[in-house]
Amino acid sequence: MVKGLFLALLLSVFAFSSAESADHKIDTKKSEIKWVGKKILGQHDGTINFKDGHLKFDGNTLVGGEFHADMTTITVKDIEDPEYNAKLKGHLESDDFFSVSSHKTAHFIITKVNKTKSESGWDYYQVIGDLTIKGITNQIKFTAKIKKSGSSVQADAKFEIDRTKWKVKYASTSFFDSLGDKAIYDDFELEINIKI
To answer: What one-character DSSP code corresponds to residue 117?
Structure first.
């Protein structure tokens, strides 16, 4: 009788702990990565789809996560002309940029999270993690805001990364001289919108 009660108590504690610390898979159809690349004479923007991913919570507090982006889904949104659009998309997929044929997936793994504040229903975190593009991994840091209600989660972040750290050097003034107005800035912007 005592052993039975102890076992039931142990199982209930384990179930509670598992429920409190859990992985929440992202909705890949509602989640999206937006990118903006800027150059001397303007900019281009587009999207990349998530392949899969999850955020890990301890109760309502973010403690980790991992994401995989499908680089074959990269799009260009600002160019309406189909021929020009396809040309830029193909260039982005080439070895000048993301080498998509040999590196179809980019990865991000959260290694550290610090909650900084809560405001208007959002929790703000400083997120540190390893971003892998073209098989090259670098640590990045950014601020993310998360709104969690039960099993429903919305997470947003907007930040810049230096593309040259992942050997995306095309038209970079850090590596090539005399580019003039053909130069492309090293920093490009990523906006992450995740829904669970």
So the answer is: E
Find out whether 136 and 167 touch, Cβ atoms under 8 Å. yes
| Cβ count near 154 (within 10 Å) | 17
Residue 193, number of CB atoms within 10 A of its CB? 16
42/79 Cα distance (integer angstroms): 12
Q: Would you say 58 and 23 are in contact if contact means Cβ atoms under 8 Å apart?
A: no
Residue-wise pLDDT for 4-44, tens only, equals 433 443 344 333 333 456 899 999 999 999 999 999 889 99
d(CA 76, CA 88) in angstroms, rounded, equals 7
Helix (H) or strand (E) holding 13: helix 2-20
Amino acid at 27: D
**Cα 164 from Cα 133, distance rounded (Å):** 11
Residues whose CB is less than 8 angstroms from the CB of residue 177 and which lie 6 or more positions away in sequence, other chains included: none
